[in-house]
């Protein structure tokens, strides 16, 4: 359990603001270090075979200006690609998402560290007013990204994928997810969120990801 909680503590989380083609947006931001060189981390987030082992299987025209689709339905276009430092994509989900272009983007920045390690910064911007935020707050996407960045950590360490569905049924997985939801609540408060709304969002997020768990 300690290793899992150390993984959770390895990430720094915050909320911010951005401007998308569709207008004002809020951001969920994660920053953490990986004990792997920057070229290896870049390959893990861009090579289709390796990407599918820690995120989700991906198909499409994977080049600048091309499009992609993940096995879970997330899809978009590759907007910016500067190996091995920067990847930015549009990020849409759901059958009606294409009617609202410019409403969601994910950007990943990599920086080489002094000891041959890599700092990864992930920023997911979503248009203000998107329907999930009032209920779940930043945890709607933040918990999912916490789980994926945990999977990336394990994959870089030993090459093994993390079964997300199985992990979330295990005691350590339930605790990791519950604490992730609470951590995003803290980031929401730090960004000026209303305490009552934040508490409600953390409870809803926890109930969604870990049914039967008390968020308090």
Automatic annotation (TrEMBL):
One family name in Pfam for this protein: AHSA1
Chain ranges of the Activator of Hsp90 ATPase homologue 1/2-like C-terminal domain: 35-149
The UniProt similarity line reads: Belongs to the AHA1 family.
**Record's protein name:** Uncharacterized conserved protein YndB, AHSA1/START domain
Q: Which organism is it from?
A: Amycolatopsis xylanica
- Recall the taxonomic lineage recorded for the source organism: Bacteria, Bacillati, Actinomycetota, Actinomycetes, Pseudonocardiales
